[in-house]
Amino acid sequence: MLLVVTIISLVGSRAFSRASGFLFLVLIVSSFSIPLSSFTVKAFSDSTRSGGMIRYTGISLETLKENLWPRFTSGAAGSANPLKKETIASVFGVFFPATAGVFAGASMSGDLKNPSVSIPRGTLYGMGLTFFIYLAVIFAMAATVTRNTLYTDITVLQDVSPVTPIAKTR
């Protein structure tokens, strides 16, 4: 997929503009596959992995309660500074790129018939869709994956994917 996107980008902005609808669809389907996996993937545990134990409970109110409130820690897998405790600011850094992408789309106003109406509306719709998708992913993961797995496994989304070629376990 990366090769295809690179070729489209190298061909030019017109090719990117034509392909953007398809790329948007791929992004939406892949993003919604995360919360959908909570309904389709059966509960499992795997302790044979080199990264540690993964425990996927399926949708569980107990797992959601365990993950509901923040417990910032130091040494979580993928942490920018494993010796320093995570903060709200460091967690915000995970979500910021999604908003930056929406605002980058607003700069493509040359293709719009009525930019003064379309840009604010499109930006708000984009932000709303991004918020909804991130919220669905957060709650799906919080209700199905134990806190310890979230701390230790940076590829947890790949591990619980319902798509067999992507899933590393089971």
Mean pLDDT: 79
Please tell me how large the radius of gyration is. 19 Å
User: Quick one: biggest sheet?
Assistant: 2 strands, antiparallel
Low-pLDDT parts are none
Polypeptide structure, described:
The protein is mainly alpha-helical and 170 residues long. It has one domain. The protein is 61% helix and 4% strand. It has helices at 2-11, 13-40, 61-67, 88-106, 115-144, 147-152, 156-159, and strands spanning 44-46, 54-56. Strands 1-2 form a two-stranded antiparallel sheet. The chain starts with a helix and ends in an 11-residue tail after the last helix.
Please give a handful of descriptors for the protein shown.
170 residues, 2 strands, mainly alpha
Q: What can be said about this structure in brief?
A:
The chain has 170 residues and is mainly α. It has helices spanning 2-11, 13-40, 61-67, 88-106, 115-144, 147-152, 156-159; strands at 44-46, 54-56.
Explain the layout of strands and helices.
Blueprint: H1 2-11, H2 13-40, E1 44-46, E2 54-56, H3 61-67, H4 88-106, H5 115-144, H6 147-152, H7 156-159
Antiparallel strand pairs: 1-2
Helix pairs in contact: 1-2, 2-5, 3-5, 4-5
